[in-house]
Task: inverse folding
């Protein structure tokens, strides 16, 4: 809706469209009523004939008020004469005193709206409508809104009065929003209807105007012709006209003209009559329209009343449905109360079960706190056992070799003594005092030379004395080794280790004896499923893959023991339920007997019981058996569900661990491949002289980076192979009887000996498994370095020992050359470990020579590359064995191998 200021501006612009002789700027200039009276005289001068009572207002509001009252009186009378009643949408009595005294804009607008309606309802509104159409669009919109408000207020006011009357009659509440919508709809319909009628009337009026214009033109033409004819007639009468024209012709022509004039006047009169009849028709149509509007209002009222009754009927139906629904809700509420009681009882049972589960969780948490300490102790025991077995094996080997050497030395000494005795018995030889010892530093040889014995016969004596010296040193070494072995045997750690192993063996025996009794009452299928899940379980390794296999087995065994305790608890719960059922039944029987008060009835009941006691006992036994079976099945079902959940969780953890390791290995391989491609591209660009892609580093530096990258990648592959070669032993080795949990000492020693004979010493299992993690801790790194240093020292000692064995072999060969008999000078046989160590030493020597050759070739190739004197061949595909053997490195390896 437009604001009051917009309507005021539109009304002022409309007032200025009249010929007033000046332009109005505000509504204050209309407060004396003079301009309004002039406009009214312009609208209908026949009705507004009087003059204003005060021509000179002299800026006094009393005179202005008198003029305004005069204007308002005649204006309202004119509207009543034209329309029969004042428009109800407008205020018929604005505050004239406020206009005259205070120049009220609001009251002035009310008076101007009355003036606007009077202009529209005047007998000749076409001229004023054209003036309105010549105004600006904003002014036209404001005047349109003012007119529509006037008409809408008229309709809505009548409807509101009638609605108020109906409300008083019926005493029914009416929704204000619906009433407002009705009023708006009626106003819009009335506006549309008036607009349509206005267009039709404007069209009819335009046709009448056109017809009047044509008739006016014809009348003007006839008047001009009549005037010319009269002039000619006067001329002829005066004798100045054309004599040749006859008077009769002129008279006939005059009569024709008069007839034509008469016919035109008749047509004009007929047109005027037709215009009057059309005006009467318009007035009758207007009256009919008002009647139709009244009928339309009555119809709308009936429609509104029908809608109200329909809404009331719908409300009554809804109330009936709500009443029915409330009854249903009451029934459902009662059933829900019963369900709430059942749920409360179940909640109490669940609370008791939860408390029991909380106690079990506390016990399990205690077990979990104890497990790391046990695993740490087991790991320390395992490491100590491995170290002791390794030392024992090394000392045993040294002891055996020393014993064999001592035996050979003793045999050699005995043979030499026999030969000395034989030589002493020869002629010219000095007598050998029994019990004397042979000198060690060559005194016997000097005595033989003094006696003149040939040097050829005594050439073997220096070798003999050297053998004696080596024999004494080997005896001393053997004594040291024996002392070392005795000290190791006397150490308390070994006995403690044996005690721990005995404890684990006894623990396994107890577990084996308890396996058969822990699933009493359960089905064979459940026992079979339990054994299968336990044998295929990987508990422990999924939780902590850094521990040793034995630790993982121990953790898995602890877990399955907890599960067995859980299963046994379920069985005990089933037994408790059985006993509870029996107690309830006995209590029910006792209450039934107490309810029978008479002695005769009690005697009759006893007689009935005695007669049917066997059958009742049988039925009760069957009933108890069925209940016990049901409770056992429920316990078995709970245990099976728990087992399935654990197996599924374990499977998901293994899958996630496997996927994680695959992703890590793939990422490492991809990163290594990208780095290798980058370095090779830089090396290729530097070789081709491409300055854009070439790196700032020199060729040898790039080649060195490539070699370091290859070596790093090979180390990673070796670690992966080592880790994959020693996976953690799962708990499946335990089987259904838990056998094989702890390796025996002899089997572990045999496995260690076989490993030492077949391959070099490897990192212990706990160290190899730490390579799985991405960031091993610093203590593990220090342990690994320490073990590597020990391994290097051990290999150096072995090599030194093998050199001593080679020296012994050299002595025996010299003895054979000197002519020693085969029975006396045959070299001792080497043991299997000595042969393996010799082969390993040869492999080490070959690898050292190969590394030396590769280093020299590397520096030679780098020198050529730096001086641009050599070429590097690159294979598009992998080189086969024949092409590899043709290369320089293949030839060097062939030379090293002696081929």
Result:
């Amino acid at each position: 809706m437009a604001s009051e200021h917009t309507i005021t501006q539109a009304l002022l612009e409309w007032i200025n469209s009249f010929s007033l002789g000046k332009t109005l700027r505000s509504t204050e200039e209309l407060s004396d009523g003079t301009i309004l009276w002039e406009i009214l005289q312009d609208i209908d001068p026949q009705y507004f004939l009087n003059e204003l009572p005060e021509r000179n207002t002299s800026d006094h509001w009393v005179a202005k008020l008198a003029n305004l009252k005069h204007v308002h009186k005649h204006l309202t009378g004119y509207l009543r004469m034209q329309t029969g009643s004042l428009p109800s949408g407008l205020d018929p009595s604005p505050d004239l005193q406020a206009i005259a005294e205070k120049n009220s804009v609001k009251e002035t607008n009310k008076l101007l709206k009355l003036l606007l309606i009077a202009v529209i309802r005047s007998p000749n509104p076409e001229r004023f409508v054209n003036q309105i159409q010549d105004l600006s669009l904003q002014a036209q919109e404001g005047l349109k809104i003012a007119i529509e408000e006037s008409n809408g207020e008229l309709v809505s006011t009548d409807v509101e009065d009638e609605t108020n009357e109906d409300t008083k009659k019926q005493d029914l509440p009416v929704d204000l929003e619906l009433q407002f919508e009705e009023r708006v709809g009626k106003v819009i319909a009335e506006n549309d209807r008036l607009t349509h009628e206005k267009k039709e009337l404007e069209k009819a009026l335009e046709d009448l105007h056109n017809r009047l214009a044509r008739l006016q033109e014809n009348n003007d033409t006839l008047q001009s012709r009549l005037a010319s004819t009269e002039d000619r007639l006067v001329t002829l009468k005066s004798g100045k006209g054309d004599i040749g024209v006859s008077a009769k012709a002129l008279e006939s022509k005059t009569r024709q003209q008069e007839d034509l004039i008469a016919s035109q006047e008749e047509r004009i009169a007929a047109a005027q009559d037709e215009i009057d009849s059309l005006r009467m028709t318009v007035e009758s149509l207007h009256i009919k329209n008002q009647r139709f509007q009244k009928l339309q209002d009555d119809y709308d009222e009936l429609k509104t009343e029908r809608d109200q009754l329909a809404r009331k009927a719908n409300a009554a139906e809804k109330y009936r449905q709500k009443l029915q629904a409330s009854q249903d809700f009451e029934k459902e509420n009662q059933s829900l109360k019963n369900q709430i009681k059942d749920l409360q009882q179940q909640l109490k049972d669940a609370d008791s079960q939860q408390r029991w589960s909380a106690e079990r969780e506390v016990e399990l948490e205690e077990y979990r706190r104890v497990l790391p300490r046990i695993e740490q102790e087991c790991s320390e025991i395992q490491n100590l056992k491995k170290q002791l077995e390794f030392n024992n094996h090394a000392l045993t080997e040294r002891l055996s070799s020393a014993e064999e050497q001592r035996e050979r030395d003793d045999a050699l000494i005995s043979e030499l003594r026999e030969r000395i005795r034989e030589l002493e018995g020869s002629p010219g030889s000095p007598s050998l005092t029994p019990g004397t010892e042979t000198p060690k530093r060559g005194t016997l040889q000097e005595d033989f030379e003094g006696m003149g014995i040939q040097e050829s016969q005594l050439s073997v004596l220096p070798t003999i004395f050297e053998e004696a010296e080596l024999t004494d040193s080997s005896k001393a070494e053997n004594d040291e080794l024996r002392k070392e072995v005795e000290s190791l045997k006397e150490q308390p750690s070994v006995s403690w280790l044996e005690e721990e192993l005995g404890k684990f063996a006894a623990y396994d025996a107890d577990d084996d004896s308890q396996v058969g009794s822990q699933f009493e009452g359960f089905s064979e299928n459940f026992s079979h499923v339990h054994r299968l899940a336990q044998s295929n379980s990987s508990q422990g390794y999924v939780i902590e893959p850094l521990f040793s296999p034995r630790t993982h087995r121990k953790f898995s065994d602890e877990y399955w023991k907890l599960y067995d305790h859980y299963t046994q608890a379920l069985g005990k719960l089933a037994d408790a339920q059985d006993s509870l059922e029996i107690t309830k039944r006995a209590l029910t029987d006792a209450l039934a007997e107490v309810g029978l008060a008479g002695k005769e009835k009690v005697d009759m009941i006893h007689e009935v019981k005695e007669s049917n006691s066997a059958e009742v006992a049988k039925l009760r036994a069957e009933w108890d058996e069925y209940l016990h079976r049901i409770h056992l099945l429920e316990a078995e079902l709970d245990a099976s569900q728990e087992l399935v959940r654990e197996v599924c969780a374990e499977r998901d953890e293994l899958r996630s661990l496997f996927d994680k390791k695959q992703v890590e290995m793939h990422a490492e391989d991809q990163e290594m491949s990208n780095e290798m491609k980058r370095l090779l591209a830089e090396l290729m660009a530097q070789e081709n002289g491409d300055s854009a892609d070439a790196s700032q580093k020199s060729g040898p530096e790039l080649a060195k980076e490539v070699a370091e990258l290859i070596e790093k990648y090979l180390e990673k592959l070796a670690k992966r192979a080592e880790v994959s070669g020693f996976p953690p032993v799962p708990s499946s080795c335990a089987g259904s009887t838990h056998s094989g949990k702890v390796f025996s000492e002899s089997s572990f020693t045999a496995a260690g000996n076989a490993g030492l004979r077949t391959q070099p010493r490897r990192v212990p299992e706990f160290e190899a498994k730490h390579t799985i993690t991405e960031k091993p801790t610093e203590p593990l790194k220090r342990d690994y370095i320490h073990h590597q240093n020990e391994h290097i020292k051990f290999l150096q000692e072995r090599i030194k020992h093998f050199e001593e064995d080679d020296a012994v072999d050299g002595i025996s060969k010299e003895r054979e050359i000197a002519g020693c008999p085969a029975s006396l000078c045959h070299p001792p046989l080497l043991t299997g470990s000595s042969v393996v160590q010799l082969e390993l030493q040869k492999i080490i020597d070959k690898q050292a020579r190969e590394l030396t050759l590769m280093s020299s070739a590397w520096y030679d190739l780098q020198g050529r590359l730096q001086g641009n004197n050599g070429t590097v061949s690159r294979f598009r595909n992998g080189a086969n064995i024949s092409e590899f053997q043709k290369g320089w490195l293949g030839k060097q390896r062939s030379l090293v191998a002696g081929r």
In short: Residues 249-489 form one domain. The two ends are 115 Å apart (CA to CA). The mean pLDDT is 69. Residues 18 and 39 are 7 Å apart (CA to CA).
